[in-house]
Design goal:
Layout: E1 7-12, E2 15-18, E3 34-37, E4 50-55, H1 77-90, E5 95-99, H2 108-112, H3 116-125, E6 129-131, H4 141-150, E7 154-156, E8 160-162, E9 173-178, E10 181-189, H5 193-196, E11 205-207, H6 210-224, E12 229-235, H7 238-247, E13 253-255, E14 267-269, E15 272-275, E16 283-292, E17 295-305, H8 314-331, E18 334-338, H9 355-368, E19 372-376, E20 387-390, H10 391-397, E21 403-410, H11 411-422, E22 433-436, E23 438-442, E24 452-457, E25 460-461, E26 467-473, H12 474-477, E27 490-498, H13 499-510, E28 512-513, E29 521-523
Parallel strand pairs: 3-9, 4-5, 5-6, 6-7, 10-12, 12-13, 13-15, 18-28, 19-26, 23-29
Antiparallel strand pairs: 1-2, 4-16, 8-11, 9-10, 14-15, 16-17, 18-20, 19-22, 21-26, 21-27, 23-24, 24-25
Helix pairs in contact: 1-8, 3-8, 9-13, 10-13
């Protein structure tokens, strides 16, 4: 087996900057890249217990945010880091900090700088390793590989390889020396990644079966690397974690992500401890384990709420301030030209077809190549004047953190959605849809639920028994604005990409925007 022992530069909480190398597949066995790190600041007597602090599915939340039921903002790394700092101070030399993926993409400022603000924040917190989540791939492989190589913590994925050569794209595991004890942490990425980021972002990559790979990795860590404790840092989801624990013996702890499952207390499946925090850094996971020759002898754990009473961490606040200042210049960048006035005036997108509504819906449909696209008018907030279009203009038009998904929906579902769209007409309603790839006519004199009189998709009458692909935002897909007819629809693609980023890219591709009202929505 190949062991990577290259250590470059200084350390953050004892985790050194690590140089990534590519490894090849020999015969049918995956050759794992294993990062071996001497960590003097983690030195501790194992009898004192190891403290594992963990988080998952942060989705770019550096700053705190408002949640119903709280008068003040909660969550975000700016507060979570304060809790981490306090626990590290109270437990010198025995804390490992882990991140279970989907962190470096998700909010405007993080996306603008391709994940760098989040990476800096995780470095400042002293994170030792992060599992590669599906949305880590949203920037494409070249940017991701560069980010991983430059980071002061390990990006782990034992099951991500290049399909043609079998080369491991990332290190499979990290080994930490803690008081003479060897802690092995291996990473896993969800096999759903090709359908939960844009296909171009993972072109040429293969995501091997996590259970099969773990069946190779765990014995290797135990027998060849002689580790004393094995931690699976996984981004495969709660149910998959439970299956993994039952199928592969020898995993002491699974720190999981992907399913946004909140486990208030650790669960145990077949001697494996499973933990997960939910999402968006609303909670910090705290697990303490004592272990010896026979594995974990005892454990205790909880989730610590990152509430409004937690003070902001000065280091993270400084990072946020730095990138917010940089974003001001980025937001003023001109990305195209509006040849016409793009209309949201007076809430028009909430009662009728507008050229701006058409444009946003077209951007969604063409980016994903779906049959149709549906965009709630309430998600479009301002008009764009004729003339230069900046990134800031797009952010003003689409201020919500909506991502784009593709559903498989029947014609009957689509008709029900259109009825929901016009049920409140002529009142202005956020549920009123702007559409692409289709047209419909409705009669406001008829009773709500019976107003849609005709629908066509790609010039053909709607077939209520046929299944269509529908691009929309995650708000509608989750039943927002009364679109509960989509709740049981299969999600065939979840881009994880902000709608505003898709629209900005569409503007850049076109150069000049000259959208028109085309008769997609007709009031009888």
């Amino acid at each position: 087996m190949y062991i990577l022992k290259d250590v470059v530069g200084g350390s953050v909480h004892g985790v050194a900057r690590l140089k990534r190398k590519s490894l090849s597949l020999l015969a049918l066995l995956l050759v794992f890249a294993v990062l071996c790190v001497q960590s003097p600041c983690l030195a501790a007597d194992s009898q004192d217990g190891l403290v594992i602090l963990y988080m998952n599915d942060v989705h770019g939340r550096l700053e705190s945010f408002q949640v119903e039921g709280y008068g003040e903002p909660i969550g975000g790394l700016v507060k979570l880091a304060t809790l981490v700092e306090d626990i590290v101070r109270e437990n010198p030399g025995r804390v490992i900090i882990l991140n279970a993926g989907d962190s470096i993409h998700g909010t405007s400022v993080v996306n603008l700088f391709e994940g760098k603000p989040m990476v800096e924040a995780l470095e400042a917190m002293g994170v030792a390793a992060m599992a590669m989540g599906n949305h880590e791939f949203n920037y494409g492989p070249s940017i991701l590989l560069k980010t991983a190589e430059e980071a002061d913590f390990a990006f782990l994925s034992a099951n991500t390889i290049q399909a043609d050569t079998g080369r491991a794209l990332f290190p499979g595991a990290l080994i930490l020396d803690v008081g003479g004890q060897r802690i092995g942490v291996f990473g896993l990425t969800t096999p759903e990644t090709p359908t939960s980021t844009h296909p171009k972002n993972v072109q040429g990559l293969e995501f091997l079966d996590p259970i099969r790979v773990s069946g190779w990795m765990v014995p290797y860590l135990r027998d060849q690397e002689k580790v004393d404790l094995v931690i699976g840092l996984t981004h495969i989801g709660y149910e998959y974690d439970r299956l993994l624990a039952g199928e592969v013996s020898g995993i002491d702890v699974i720190v999981g992500g992907h399913s946004h499952t909140r486990l208030d207390k650790p669960e145990v499946v077949a001697d494996t401890i499973i933990v997960q925090t939910g999402r968006h850094a609303e909670f910090l996971g705290h697990l303490e384990v004592s272990y010896g020759d026979k594995g974990v002898s005892k454990h205790s754990g909880t989730l610590i709420h990152v509430g409004p009473e937690v003070a902001d961490n000065s280091k993270i606040a400084e990072i946020i301030s730095k990138y917010n200042k940089k974003s001001e210049a980025e937001l003023s960048k001109v990305i195209g030209e509006a040849a016409v006035y793009l209309d949201e005036e007076g809430g028009n997108v909430r009662t009728r077809e507008t050229n701006l509504g058409n444009f946003v819906a077209d951007a969604m449909r063409e980016a994903i190549a779906a049959d149709i696209a549906l965009m709630n008018g309430g998600g479009i907030r301002v008009s764009i004047n004729k003339g230069p279009i900046t990134i800031g203009d797009v952010f003003s038009v689409l201020p919500f953190d909506d991502t784009v998904v593709v559903l498989e929906a029947t014609g009957a579902d689509i008709r029900a959605a259109l009825e929901n769209s016009v049920k409140a007409y002529p009142e202005q309603a956020g549920r009123f849809l702007q559409v692409s790839g289709m047209s419909f006519e409705f009669d406001p004199n008829k009773a709500p639920g019976e107003r849609v009189v005709s629908v066509s998709i790609s010039g053909e009458p709607l077939d209520e028994t046929k299944t269509y692909t529908v691009a929309t935002n995650d708000f509608i897909a989750a039943g927002g604005n009364g679109y509960d007819m989509f709740l049981d629809c299969k999600v065939v693609f979840s881009s994880g990409e902000m709608l505003r980023d898709i629209v900005a890219r569409y503007i850049e591709q076109l150069g000049t925007v000259s959208a028109e009202v085309e008769g997609r929505i007709v009031v009888r």
